Request: fold
Amino acid sequence: MTTFVPHPHLLDSPRHRDWPRYPEPALPARAVAPPVAADVVIVGAGPAGLAVAAALWHLGVRDVVVLDRTGRPVERFLERIDRLDQRVLRSPYEHHPGVEGYRDCELRDFARLHWSLLTPVERREIRMSQAGHRSVVPVDVFAAYCRHTAAIHGVTERLWPGEVDSVEPDGDRVTVRGKGFTITARHVVLCLGEERRDAPERWWTGTRPDEVGYWDEPVPAGADRAVVVGAGLTAAHLIHNALDRGAVVDWVMRGESERYQCSDVNASFFRAEGRARFDSHRNPVPWADRLTLMGRQRRASVMFEFRPLFEAAQADGRLTVHRGTGIGAVHAKGVELADGRLVAGDHVVLALGTVPSIGTGLLSEELVGARDGWPDLDERTLAYQRAPRVFAAGAAACMVLGPAGRNIDGHRVATARIAATVAARLREDAVAHV
Ligand SMILES: Cc1cc2nc3c(=O)[nH]c(=O)nc-3n(C[C@H](O)[C@H](O)[C@H](O)COP(=O)(O)OP(=O)(O)OC[C@H]3O[C@@H](n4cnc5c(N)ncnc54)[C@H](O)[C@@H]3O)c2cc1C
Reply:
């Protein structure tokens, strides 16, 4: 068997190139509040919300309002990626935020159309993808593709900035409220993504010191000795950035070793046979089995590209890895390990992963029906069992779709179910009202 280990040069893919833009609609709608009624409200314009909106467009559903705190498609995803200075996605070209069953210009087609803007390393990745091998997508290509997808599917002009505070189903309508707007919708799709996982309270001896940050917060430029806690890709990027600017790094992880792999989810979970290990629609899969699989599959991992860089940094003493150790406490000047040792530094960054947003806080707890942190969803439609006009796409759907539910490829699967259900119900409603 051949093991394909990509070159670390991939990690230097340029960002913010000048991509030709599809003529985007003017944004007069932004200055005013969103409409007071719509067939569908989508909360969240990340890759999942974008996929749902594009699928509804293909199915002829046009009375859609998309709401996002940021007011721009895929903005939070890109902000997070840019904060980590992550230049390539960890998912391949086949995982594009497109729509199942419709022939759009796909992510790889889009990249090929912009061949002259790509570096030789990036072009090689496209050839790898065409040959059916693992490939890596530049963030720059992905960002331009998302903007293009939003523009051609009419999402840009249907997107309003706004934070949703509550989602209240009542009979055949759902009321969506936020600061300055109330919208009555027939259907609501929650595409809320994930929030960072906070440190346990017992790690702090008082309030969190300024010298300690989370992965999604800026790292001060002057930190010469950094301590990074966590074993996943975000930790890897933080370490890479710190080493790059000449800092010395201590890497603290709970596991016994680093896990280097191609992607954060085993490839089988992107295929039907992998999803069948979760999907209870046809063959019931015990909840406990799914929970165990999720626990195993959500373990932190780092892309292969980092291995040569980190091994070199360890060899020359710039990186020290503390494996198999819990945290006793986190202080301004370092981390106290569970065995009492102190790992000192001028800045500590906590990269502890993310927690799926499952609708709690927007829907009532009773309607979410959470079990072990997962919402109670209809396996066929991804609607909330106790709120059938409200749907969940993205990480919230993982106990139905498996660990890939939180990834770009999983959004396509979720979208196919949700959009088909919503479009069919709207057609039924229209017939009933004739
Ligand atoms: C650093 C990083 C790199 C990643 N790389 C990859 C990758 O390469 N490939 C891959 O497949 N996956 C990757 N992932 C996983 C990734 O998060 C998902 O694929 C993708 O972002 C999920 O899309 P989403 O739309 O579900 O969530 P998000 O992108 O988080 O979008 C959710 C949106 O909902 C909005 N929102 C939430 N609550 C509200 C509210 N109450 N009111 C209004 N708006 C709200 C947020 O502002 C946000 O814009 C990565 C994750 C991280 C953190």
